[in-house]
């Protein structure tokens, strides 16, 4: 490992910072700057950020995801294989895939301008055949996703265990998301032996990546709830805020008459829907419509508006489907772009 690479890293992130290093024996291998392959408009440009995310600009399109260091001179990208870091004679630093046919060269300082997240493009987020376009995060980190998520006959089935989520590779802003869901299998059973309500949700405007979870396994996001009887509720996660959540928290704090009630008010995350439940009986397909435009999100269940959030402090990000203790199926997951 070249000493100047470590110096670049320290200058970019602060002395002693480590990028996703899981062992004290590993030396961080990704320097500041950007990594390029090719020339002209067909140049592939990678950047690796301190929050363990990567961005690639290729043919005018930006892709994002997560990376982790796997050895002194290797790292992996979810869905993209394992890369090797090398220093060539003369000091040029490169990364390459095992086939050695694709090589990126380090350039400093980083000068490429990455475009802002593009408006959503109309189409299916789920192709009905496989999980192309999605990545999985499960608890504990590194758990295999195959037993949890399964695709068959145009339906995406989730066992609900372990806890985690699928998230889109791309980020989105200003869109209408529609999907269908139904509960399958028996209700989960609590420690008291009694059935508990089935639980799941759609996470919107997810920030960061799987390595930056804010609440257990859950990332910073706004949850559009799917729990039995509560579809359409909002839950704020990891620092996301809405006007309605702020008002409800202040109201609850003002009414608190004990330290216990005050702590409860400070930990409040749920903003209930404004009308009665519109869900169909267990086993029947429901339709969720979620409209995200600017700092506003509106949820509609089976044609009935349930909730409206305004004043969000996030307005774009990944879209996630949870695995949260209950068997559930999804289908017809579609995205329609909206004007700014």
Outline type = globular
Main beta sheet: 8 strands, antiparallel, barrel
Question: Helical region count?
Answer: 3
Helix content: under 10%
Oligomeric status: single chain
CATH topology of the largest domain: Jelly Rolls
Compute the CA-based radius of gyration. Answer: 22 Å
Number of domains: 2
Order of helices and strands: HEEEEEEEEEEEEEEEEEHHEEEEEE
- Poorly predicted runs of 5 or more residues: 1-25
Task: Please describe what this structure looks like.
An eight-stranded antiparallel beta barrel has the order 1-2-3-4-5-6-7-8. Strands 9, 11, 12, 14, 19, 20, 21 and 23 form an eight-stranded antiparallel β-sheet that branches. The chain has a seven-stranded antiparallel β-sheet with strand order 10-13-22-15-16-17-18, covered by helices on one side. The protein is mainly beta and 340 residues long. The chain contains three helices and 23 strands. A hairpin with a 2-residue loop joins strand 3 and strand 4. The radius of gyration is 22 Å and the shape is globular. Helix 2 (243-255) packs antiparallel against helix 3 (259-266). It folds into two domains: 3-107, Lipocalin (Beta Barrel), CATH 2.40.128; 123-337, Sandwich (Jelly Rolls), CATH 2.60.120.560.
In a few lines, what is going on in this structure?
With 340 residues, the protein is mainly beta. Helix content is 9%, strand content 38%. The protein has helices at residues 3-13, 243-255, 259-266; strands at residues 34-37, 44-48, 53-58, 61-71, 74-77, 81-87, 93-96, 103-107, 123-124, 134-138, 149-152, 155-158, 164-168, 175-183, 201-206, 221-225, 234-237, 270-271, 286-293, 296-301, 304-309, 318-323, 328-337.
